[in-house]
Amino acid sequence: MKIEELDFGDTPWGEISLRRRWDRVTERDVHEVKLGDDFLMSSQFTTGERELARIGLSAVAGTSLTVLVGGLGLGYTALAALEDGRVTELTVVEALPAVISWHERDLLPDTVGLAADPRVRLVRDDFFDLVRAGRADRTYDAVLVDIDHAPDWLLRDDHGDLYTVEGFARVAAMLTGDGVFALWSDEPPDPEVVRRMGGAFASADAHVVTFPNPLTGGESANTVYLATRPANR
User: Is this entry keyworded NAD (predicted)?
Assistant: First the structure.
């Protein structure tokens, strides 16, 4: 199997690389990202990332929506958000400048033009610190987050404070009165995560997203947690 490295660099989180390989099962190019020894993301399966945006935005009423995406990655969540014609402003917060650079250089064929879309603002920042410090400069109709693998499977230990009642309340403070928070996870729904979200929002639940997996001949699944209407508003 031939692997072509499209970009490589050092980050505070370890060495990051963007690679392309031909998948003989699906008969197409697959782009994948490694961070250190960890396979961080892949274009092999993107249903969960797209559904994060669709499930989140389907719970938002109104027009002229402002949306914040935490984690740019390969761009599928941001791209799916832009497919909703109500979205007029999309801010994407990404900690790693290399990832932003991939999109500015259009290295990913599925998301060519994303960085140049006039509705899009790519911001180099640590989403977790932004939330922790209350540094958001406005409120949003929706906050969509796909950074860690799951609330208990973190890329960095200092991300853990987001997944508490207090952390979720800090996200809620970034939202409009009818705002929505959606969170992607690569693990099955965890009732404790829903309970904690429910401590900061009027309602919270978990959606299982299934998709065919030609590599196994069966189905795979992700989870999208959805919380609506910040509490005490």
Answer: no
